[in-house]
Specification:
This is Glyoxal reductase. InterPro entries: AKR, AKR5G, Aldo/ket_reductase_CS, NAD(P)_OxRdtase_dom_sf, NADP_OxRdtase_dom. It comes from Paenibacillus swuensis. Belongs to the aldo/keto reductase family. With about 280 residues, this protein is an alpha/beta fold. It has one domain: TIM Barrel (Alpha-Beta Barrel). The chain has ten helices and ten strands. An eight-stranded parallel beta sheet has the order 3-4-5-6-7-8-9-10. A two-stranded antiparallel sheet has the order 1-2. Helix 1 runs parallel beside helix 2, helix 2 packs across helix 3 and helix 7 crosses helix 8.
Length: about 280
């Protein structure tokens, strides 16, 4: 039972990762993302998730420095973009990300999407970075079971994390089970379905019962399903409200009612069919 914002899950290599963090997708580089990162850290967040393609790693790094919290207390994730996949290009992309962030290491480095014919070479580069201590853990994002099975046939290191679109309308039970069986931590991006679930009647009814917002109920559902969650916001009020999920627990009955909302409905691209 997660009872505070700093609670962590232990990844398959022993590294501790916070259950809860800030996503910065679509946060503009410069003042907007700096303010979001410093505000989140001041509100107790210890995990920040960015990516090369977000074009805001420099601002994330600045926010980390301005927060006044020691680097070793934070958990920073970034991702290699599709155009940079491949062995040498991934190593170069990592160095570029590190330089923009102004950090000596990242806690988690992910392959952003399973680019056909590329992700295995990319994974070899991640394994190299991991062996050399440049990253504390490596993982993937947007990988289906088929991609994971393929990767695991040659991988020397099992991915520590798989970050995927995950919310009550897209609960991905088979993927979740596969990840649990292989000790891969599932992590949710777009946990609030980009705001599309905030007026969902079942969720609003449950929220009323606990005197919480719909968003808080969804994020609590993530945690009780043992899924790491990284809601994105650049508004301080929302950043703080999203974190107010550690003082209540959803009943089994309410968890089941939320589980029943699954329709395999995506807001983002299908990892089997994307062209970027």
């Amino acid at each position: 039972m997660t009872t505070k914002i700093t609670d962590t899950t232990v990844l398959n290599n022993g590294v501790e990762m916070p259950w809860f963090g800030l996503g910065v997708w679509q946060a503009a580089d410069g003042e907007e993302v700096v303010r979001a990162v410093t505000g989140a850290i001041q509100a107790g967040y210890r995990s920040i998730d960015t990516a090369a393609v977000y074009k805001n790693e420099a601002g994330v790094g600045q926010g980390i420095r301005e927060s006044g919290v020691p680097r070793e207390e934070l958990f920073i994730t970034t991702k290699v973009w599709n155009a940079d996949q491949g062995y040498e290009t991934t190593l170069a992309a990592f160095e570029a990300s590190l330089k923009l962030l102004g950090l000596e290491y990242v806690d988690l480095y992910l392959i952003h999407w399973p680019v056909k014919g590329k992700y295995k070479e990319t994974w070899k580069a991640l394994e190299e970075l991991y062996r050399n201590g440049r990253v504390r853990a490596i993982g993937v994002s947007n990988f289906h079971v088929s991609h994971l099975e393929d990767l695991l046939t040659d991988a020397e290191v099992v991915p520590a994390v798989n970050q995927v679109e995950y919310h009550p309308r897209l609960a991905q039970p088979e993927l979740k089970q596969f990840c649990e069986e292989h000790n891969i931590q599932l992590e949710a991006w777009s946990p609030l379905m980009q705001g599309k679930l905030l007026d969902e009647p079942t969720l609003t009814a449950i929220a009323g019962k606990y005197n919480k917002s719909t968003a808080q109920v969804i994020l609590r559902w993530d945690l009780q399903n043992e899924v790491v969650t990284i809601p994105k916001s650049v508004q301080q009020e929302r950043i703080e409200a999203n974190a107010q999920i550690f003082d209540f627990e959803l009943s089994d009955e309410d968890m089941a009612a939320i589980d029943a909302l699954n329709k395999n409905e995506r807001t983002g691209p299908d990892p089997d069919n994307f062209d970027f």
